[in-house]
Amino acid sequence: MENEKLMKKKSKDERADDLRAEYDLRELLKEGVQGKYADRFREGANLVLLDQDVAEAFPTDEAVNEALRLVVQLRKLPKPGKRTKTKEAGTSI
Predict the structure, then answer these.
(1) What's the domain count of the chain?
(2) CB 50 within 8 A of CB 58
(3) Confidence at residue 47, expressed as pLDDT on a 0 to 100 scale
(4) Could you tell me if 84 and 78 are in contact, meaning their C-beta atoms sit under 8 angstroms apart?
């Protein structure tokens, strides 16, 4: 009968508290700050998950931002072969 007690499965309530006694959450969390990152979240920080190959090419957030700013600038350049309005207006002599 003693073996039966040892083999008995723990109830759901007994399993819910598996934290060891030496890990006192009140002590571990007493210096925690509630809402520590709430302001940053409200500012609209955008988090983007990079694919592994991109993350290797751009290891820091500064590197990613610099590359993306360059792409934005390049998109603003006129495309070759297309005339802008100023060139078209100057050709009628």
Answers:
(1) 1
(2) yes
(3) 78
(4) yes
DSSP classification of residue 27: H
Give domain status of residue 22, yes or no. Answer: no
Distances (CA, A) of 38 to 29, 34, 61: 18, 9, 20
- pLDDT reported for residue 53: 94
With respect to residue 56, please indicate whether it lies within any of the assigned structural domains.
yes
Has residue 25 been placed in a domain? Answer: no
Contact predicate 24/33, CB 8 Å: no
Task: Retrieve residue 58's tokens.
Answer: 């751009």
Q: Report the run of H or E that residue 40 belongs to, with start and end.
A: helix 38-42
Domain span at residue 59 reads 46-78
53 falls within a domain: yes
pTM of the predicted protein model? 0.40
